[in-house]
Design brief:
Blueprint (H helix, E strand, L loop, with lengths): L4 E2 L5 H11 L1 E4 L5 H17 L12 E5 L1 H4 L1 H7 L2 H10 L6 E11 L9 E2 L16 E7 L11 E2 L18 E2 L7 E5 L3 E3 L9 E10 L8 H4 L2 H4 L4 H7 L34 H8 L4
The structure holds 2-oxoglutaric acid (AKG) and fe (ii) ion (FE2).
Amino acid sequence: MSVEHLKPTDSPDRAAEVLARDGCVVIDGLETSATFDRIREELGPWFDANETGVDEFSGHRTKRTGGLIARSETSRGVVQNPFVLETVKAVLADATSYHLHLTQVIAIGPGETAQQIHRDQWAFDFFPFPNGYEVQCNTLWAMTEFTEENGATRVIPGSNQAEDRKQFSIEDTEPAEMSAGSVLLYTGALYHGGGANRSDATRYGLNVTYARSWLRQEENQYLTVPQDVARDLPEPLLRLMGYARGAYALGYIDDLRDPLDALRPTHGKDTGFGDLEATARQVRRET
Ligand SMILES: O=C(O)CCC(=O)C(=O)O
Ligand SMILES: [Fe+2]
């Protein structure tokens, strides 16, 4: 089975259907390659200052650079890409809410070997979520072209239905090749891994992931984005970053106040309680 490709004119619901079946889908040309050139420029100083990984999984010839909301203004638009957010909402339709899980440029350098095949949801201490109960909807944007030679992500379409903790090998996988500006969407249950880079140029990918808001974020947005920066960000982005109540009451501050009040004390529109109606629907099993 090979990775299905859709166009930006296809619907997010269609993307969610393919994700439910295969665990992955590529949307060709969802952003422009110029957008990612700009992000690379904005992050230049951090790439230079950064070290390669310390183990096989993070990659001895791979640099991982995070904190994108704070460090790259252009990345904020990509993190909030409307097609992606609509797809995430459809994939996690039975969740009261979701939040940003991590933002990370993965720069796989020449000579890097293939990463171990894994499920991203293993990050949650290997909790055995049932198949079909997705906890994450993830993106890997091709900042530069992804080819088999330069380390395109290796995926196993349909492996979202496989048993947990299965040991797959590279032979079971195929490369998710795509042009710069395209995106690989995949769920937390898809088996995949970074490819070996046999070219002489670095492969740049932008990993932005989203998870149910009752799960702890992999990249701690509250501490990664300094308050001085966060204070001036638009409300929808802050809500996505986690300045919001998850489910009914998760993440309030002190006297049941809206977490956004910590940044903007004058905000004061909300009581700090979550969506009572949505919670009531959950209790009645209507969602
Ligand atoms: O960079 C890639 O292609 C995938 C990396 C990955 O799957 C991971 O680090 O979890
Ligand atoms: Fe991964």
